[in-house]
Specification:
99 residues; alpha+beta; Translation Initiation Factor IF3; 3 helices
Length: 99
């Protein structure tokens, strides 16, 4: 992903609320499945790491993106943003994360 594309996705993600939350279990199989499902329907997803999470946000962003075959857009504070394009979603004027 080019820097300009990443910057555009960061700008789009700014207004999104986190949809996947990492708890004290950390990066479990059920969390990866949940993130994968959410990426398939929304393409751009914010992941919030709780205070009790065993992993640090910067350390979690890479494995989350790798396990779901997504791109890590950014990791700031306790929030990471992932993007995975879904060719099955019809391309319309409105991106899937704004619906």
């Amino acid at each position: 992903m080019k820097g300009r594309e990443r910057a555009e996705l960061r700008a789009e993600a700014h207004h999104l609320s986190p949809t996947v939350h990492v708890g004290k279990e950390g990066l479990s199989a059920s969390l990866i499945t949940s993130l994968d499902d959410t990426l398939r329907t929304h393409e751009l997803v914010k992941v919030k790491l709780g205070k009790n999470a065993e992993v640090k946000p910067k350390d979690a962003a890479g494995p989350l993106a790798l396990e779901t075959k997504a791109e890590g857009v950014q990791a700031i504070g306790r929030t990471a943003t992932c993007y995975c394009e879904n060719p099955d979603l019809k391309r319309a004027d409105v991106p899937p994360w704004k619906r």
